[in-house]
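Q: Could you fold this chain for me?
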Amino acid sequence: MAIKIKILSEQLSNKIAAGEVVERPASVVKELIENSLDAEANDIIVETEIGGKRLIKVSDNGFGMSKEDALLALERHATSKIADDNDLFNISTLGFRGEALPSTASVSRFTIASRERGSIEGTEIYAEGGKIRDVKAFGMAEGSIITVRNLFFNTPARLKFMKSNETESGHIGDVLTRLALSRPDIRFTWINDGKTVFKLLPGDMLNRASNLLGVKNAGKLFNIEFKDGDIEIYGLLSAPEISRSTSGGFYTYINGRFIRDKIVQHALMQGYKNVMEKGRYPVVLLFINLPSSEVDVNVHPTKHEVRFREQGRVHAAIQNAIESVLRKSPWLSEKEPLFTPLKPSEPSISKIESVKDALLKYSGVPKKPSMFNFPQPSQLPVREEKPVPSEPFSLPKNEIKEEAGYFSSLQIIGQFRSAYIICQDNDDLILIDQHAAHERVVFQELKSSFSKNSIEKQGLLFPETLELSHGEVALLKEFSEELDNIGFELEDFGGNTWILKAVPRILSNGEYLKALKDILEELGGAGSSGLFKEKVDDILATVACHSVVRGSHPLSASEIKHLFARMDSTDFASGCPHGRPVISKITLREIEKMFKRV
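A: Sure. Below is the predicted structure, expressed as C-alpha cells.
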C-alpha cells in the first residue's frame, strides 16, 4: 500500500509559515522593527517602495550579529531570545519564535547585512526564495541592514491578493505609528518612494503623540498614571469630543507590545461609559505593564492577542485607571470662562440682558422648552415662515410638491420633550421621532443627488488644516475622486497634512470634520475603489447623521409642516438609515384598552 502522508520540505514549510507571519508588507516591517528594538537600537530607518511590494529596507544601529549568528537566524525556529519551556512563560522581548526572518526570506529576494559591536567587519547574506545564494564579508557600521525585495515573487497567488500601493503604504504607516508611539525615546525615519514621510526625534510621549496623532488631538490628550499592586498603567486619554466611529484610535500596549485584546477594549469603554456618546470611541494611548508571567503572548502568530492569568483583575485596574482621570473632567479646566468681568467702559449687564431678551423674542426660540410644545391653532393654517439656511428643518432649494401626502395630511397636536412630534390620523395617534425622520429625509435626498452627481459643495471661507494618520492619508489618495463626488474638496499640503477647502453644503453648518473622519473609517473596509459602491449608503448615512440636529429641538408649526412635506416628497421608509424606527402608531382601540373602556 502506497504511503499517503509525506513530510513537507523545509522550503514549503517556510512558505506555509509565511502565510501566518507575513500577511502583507506591513507584517514584514513590524517583524523587522521589533527585531531592531530587541537589538537595543535607538536609530531605525525604514525605506519602502510601491507599498513595500518592491522594497522594504530596515536599517538600525543595534548590537548586530556575527557571521555564524546571521546564518543561523535564517533557519526556522532559531532564536536568541528563549532557550527552554520556562522562558516561554516569561517573555520580555517583542520577538521570540524565530520564524520572521526565514518566513520572509522564503517569499522574497532577501539580504541581511550585519556587523556585531566590536567586530572589524560585517557579513552580508543573500537568499532567494529561501535558498542562500551568497555569503561574503561586508564593510558597514555597527548594526543590521535587512533588505526585502520583490515580496511574494514566487507565490503569485499571494501577490494577487495585495491591495493598491496606497493602501499597503497606509498599513505600513499604521504599523510604524504603533511602534513609534510605544518607544518615544527612539529616532524613527520613514522614507516611502524616495520621499521622507516623517523623521521622529527622541522625545516624550506627548510630543510623539503630537507628531503622529495630530497637533489638534494632542491638545485634548490627558495624562494617566495608575498603579494597582504589580499592575502599572500610564499613557494618554482623549477628551470625549475627540472620538471616532470605530476603535481605530485605540493604541494599547502590554509590556511594550501593541495588542488588540477584547478584555482591554471592553475595560476602556466601561471607563468612558458615562461620558462618551454611544457608538463613539475615544483616542487612547495606554501602556499596561505587569509581570511577564501573568500574561501569555504566545497565542497567535501575529502576537496581537494575549491571554491574562487574572483577566478580571486586569479589567478592573484598567477601568479604574480610566475613571480616575475622567472623574476630574480635565477638559473642562482647559476651557475659558463663559463670562469675563466687564470693564467700566463696557455696557452694563442689565443692558446686555435686555438685548439678549430682545434677540430671543426676535428669533422665536423659547428660553426653557417645556415638556409639550403646542402650536397655536391660528398658526397651523395661516403662519408661514421663510426657511432660514441655519435652521435644521429648512426647505431645500428645489421646491417641494404641493399636493398633500400622508404626512402632510396629519393633524399636528404638538411636541413631546422637544424630540417627538405628536399627530392625529383619524382615530389613530401618531408619534414621529423628528431626528430619525429628518435623517431619513436627508439620506434619501443625498442618495438622489449622488446618483445624479449633483451633491452641492460649500466652499469654506477659512479652509481647515487636517492632521491625519498614515492610513487616512492612503485612503484620501485612493478615494479622492469619490470623496469629491460626495462634496469634500481636499488638497495635499505635504506629509500627513491636508487642506479641506469645501464640504457638502448640507454639512456646512454641522460637524463636517467628524463626518469626514467617520467616512474615512467606513472607507477603510472598502478595500478598493471598485468596492466603493457597496459603501455608498453607509457613507451617505454618515453625512446625513452629522447634518441633522440631535437631541431636543423645539419646532414651530411651519417647521413641522416643512419636515412633513419633505417626508412626502422622498421615497420615505419607516426607519432611519441606521435602522431605528421613525414612526409609531397607537390605535384608538389600544388607547381605550389602556383606560379599560373596552
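A (continued): The longest strand covers residues 457-467.
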